[in-house]
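Input.
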Amino acid sequence: VSFDDKYYYGEQEFSVEKNAVTDVKVVKSVDPSLDREATRVVKSMPNWIPGKQNGSAVRVKYTVPVTFRLQ
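Output.
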């Protein structure tokens, strides 16, 4: 795959529960190789603190934009 010096935008979705990032998946695909890299980066993020509801930890789902600039 060849890319110009442009920006490419995708989206990743993941859940945070009990200090772990889980259920990582591609929501908006760019290219299979870029999707794999975005998934790798999200999975390697430091653990997040889960949300709380009525004092108990609960799963929270996030969707984040991912921007690639390839030169």
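The chain is about 15% helix and 55% strand.
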